[in-house]
Amino acid sequence: MKFFIDTANLKDIQEAVELGVLDGVTTNPSLMAKEGIRGTDAVMSHYKKICEIVDGDVSAEVIATDYEGIIREGEALAELHPNIVVKVPMIREGVKAIKYFSEKGIKTNCTLIFTAGQALLAAKAGATYVSPFVGRLDDIGADGLQLIQQIVDIFSNYGYPTQVLAASVRHVPHLIQCAELGADVVTCPLSVITGLLNHPLTDKGLATFLADHAKVNG
Ligand code: E4P
To answer: Which residue ranges traverse the bilayer (predicted)?
Structure first.
């Protein structure tokens, strides 16, 4: 399973790279705004910086919602760096644009997926990734992980090459369950990735080992 980090924060991205387990990055307009990145030039240069840090796919989201606008923005983003994946919302014009990009060999991530039908549509249009939002479904009392299961099963039934990118993954149990269900990728904040390190018995065991070693060796 690939690990993507869901942030536009360069320090967090660098820390995940240094851990040696990062396969890519996802961003969205809210995450860019959180870092105070304003204006097209600043946004483009920030994506370039991310691509220079990470050796893997970097999802950069279009803002346009009309077909021509999505194509224009997507092509400009794709030209920035070979690692860029154009992130397109699950709307009618977005599906048409995904078809166009896939025929041009431009990688896409169809975002804001909340049903299996939406995922199927994006896969048929040739999306490289679909992003079902696990946490946001849980937020409204639905079952985000059940959606991951459905999409993984459907793609496997028909051999779709589209990868299931479990998004809005908020905590360690989410990530582990996505792995059990066979999601190709998870994207989550740095805290979820580093959360995988933790167990109190690991800390306790290490403290005992070091104390016993010190007793004999000083
Ligand atoms: C997906 O690519 C989104 O950026 C993201 O995972 C949304 O997560 P959130 O629901 O925690 O904001």
So the answer is: none
